[in-house]
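Feature request, filed as a ticket because there's no other form

It would be nice if the structure record came with a short human-readable summary line next to the tokens. Right now we just get the raw output. Example of a typical job, pasted below so the devs can see what we mean:
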Amino acid sequence: MANIKSQKKRILTNAKAADRNKAVKSELRTRVRNAQTSVGTPEGEDNLRLAIKRIDMAAAKGIIHPNSAARRKSRLMRQLKSA
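Raw output as currently delivered:
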């Protein structure tokens, strides 16, 4: 454990940020999975739109890299078009 007061605070704030990031990544994975399983169904495009929205939000917050977001969106769109 750190002895410096500012470092103790950084440990706490980093833990809070990690929890928030974990929640966002979890929801992101869920939305992407829902979009992939519903390809070709009537609600497929809605699920795809929600997944892309979550990917963009995660990239904007810095939780995932912007190039990673672009790659994920590209793969999702490619799956939708091939179905």
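Something like this underneath would help us a lot:
Residues 30-35+42-83 form one domain.
The CA atoms of residues 57 and 63 lie 9 Å apart.
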